[in-house]
Design brief:
This protein is 39% helix and 16% strand. By secondary structure, the chain is an alpha/beta fold. It folds into 2 domains: 9-39 and 273-360, Aspartate Aminotransferase, domain 1 (Alpha-Beta Complex), CATH 3.90.1150; 53-269, Type I PLP-dependent aspartate aminotransferase-like (Major domain) (Aspartate Aminotransferase, domain 2), CATH 3.40.640.10. It binds pyridoxal-5'-phosphate (PLP). Pyridoxal-5'-phosphate (PLP) binds next to α5.
Length: 363
């Protein structure tokens, strides 16, 4: 045991992040064949990974004896081209989670505040607390971020404001025009983090560049974990202004993105057909699930992402029962939604199996 005061108190009081349960764990615990288990718990891509990315990663294995390019130059250049910005305005991370942590390193100290919705992606809160800052949580209204209430929560101590577009776990999206005007109402000094982890599932890309032109401090986060099917590789990135990018670069590890990840992400980015197919498949899956929930009288939150929140009664019990039947979903009691579960959109066959099992449960 450590003496009182020896361990950073923010670490001792840090809530624990609960990820979706891995297939192998569930198989071992319940004596199931892992090949028969489907995981609809972490909003991964049910179609897997672009074959072009897989090929590039295999080729990348040939050079793992060498350190990776610490500046991830080719990947950042390609991302910069895509977003029509300068390479120095792109920062890459070991998942967008790492960039959230880098934001904490750069901006948060005890006494500072960060404003976020609740329920929203839990890592905003975890990072804020880890740096000893205060998480100011603003309840969602009808599962949507309440932008007015979030502005009202900003004080002289606010450093960061987080807005996921769309949100996890609700799948809801504030219209881009409203977000743009809302940012205009915030003090210019605050840093607004627009988390676009699921943006590629939307039909239209939002152009946030007017915000930069107005001199707003904005960080837009993206990830390769969702539509690109590279969650296990851990690649995310931020688009921001040069000054913030330089600060984020200072606090990251020198080789935070391994060489295989750089190769895989680069190839995935150029496989537009794959992304289009995955977007279309997700749309079909969403319609399939939402129609079935509506038909069965199960309340759900219409989603703009690759998962759906649905009200099943006792979320924990449904999670446990589905798990016994080889389907892993995500209970969301930790998000203050004990009656709900979040299900990721699977393939049509996986969704069918989920619906069959769900409708046969007695809990
Ligand atoms: C809204 C949101 N932001 C960020 C992330 C983290 O993604 P990454 O895998 O890039 O760390 C997730 C992952 O589920 C998410 O839902």
């Amino acid at each position: 045991m450590f003496e009182p005061g020896f361990v950073n108190p923010s670490v001792l009081s840090q809530p624990v992040y609960e990820p979706g349960r891995p297939i192998e764990d569930v198989a071992r615990e319940l004596g199931l064949d892992p090949d028969t288990i489907i995981k609809l718990a972490s909003n991964e891509n049910p179609l897997g990974t672009s074959p072009k990315a897989l090929e590039a990663m295999r080729a990348g294995l040939g050079s793992v004896a060498l350190y990776p390019d610490g500046g991830a130059t080719r990947l950042r250049e390609r991302l910069a081209q895509r977003h029509r910005v300068d390479r120095n305005e792109i920062v890459v991370g070991n998942g967008s989670n790492e960039i959230l942590e880098l934001l904490g390193h750069v901006f948060l100290r005890p006494g500072d505040e960060a404003v976020m919705g609740t329920p929203a992606f839990i890592v905003y809160k975890l990072v804020t607390l880890l740096f000893g800052a205060k998480a100011v949580e603003v309840p969602l209204v009808d599962h949507v971020h309440d932008l007015g209430a979030m502005s009202a929560a900003v004080t002289a101590r606010t450093k960061l404001v987080f807005l996921p577009c769309p949100n996890n776990p609700t799948g809801t999206l504030n219209p881009a025009g409203e977000v743009m005007s809302w940012i205009g109402t915030l003090p210019k000094r605050v840093v607004v983090v627009l988390d676009e982890a699921y943006a590629e599932y939307l039909e239209t890309e939002v152009d946030w560049s007017p915000l930069w032109m107005e001199g707003r401090r904005v960080v837009v986060l993206r990830t390769f974990s969702k539509i690109f099917g590279l969650a296990g590789l851990r690649v995310g990135y931020a688009r921001t202004n040069r000054e913030i990018a330089d600060l984020l670069q200072r606090v990251r590890q020198p080789f935070n993105l391994n060489s295989v990840a750089q190769a895989g992400a680069l190839a995935a980015l150029d496989d537009d057909d794959w992304v289009t197919d995955c977007r279309r498949a997700n749309q079909e899956g969403l319609v399939q699930l939402q129609d079935a929930f509506a038909g069965a009288g199960i309340e759900y939150v219409p989603s703009q992402a690759n998962f759906i929140l649905c009200r099943v009664g006792d979320g924990q019990a449904v999670f446990r029962e589905l798990q016994k039947r080889g389907i892993i979903v995500r209970p969301v009691g930790g998000y203050g939604l004990p009656e709900w579960v979040r299900v990721s959109v699977g393939t049509l066959a996986e969704n069918d199996r989920l619906l069959r099992e769900l409708f046969n449960l007695n809990c």
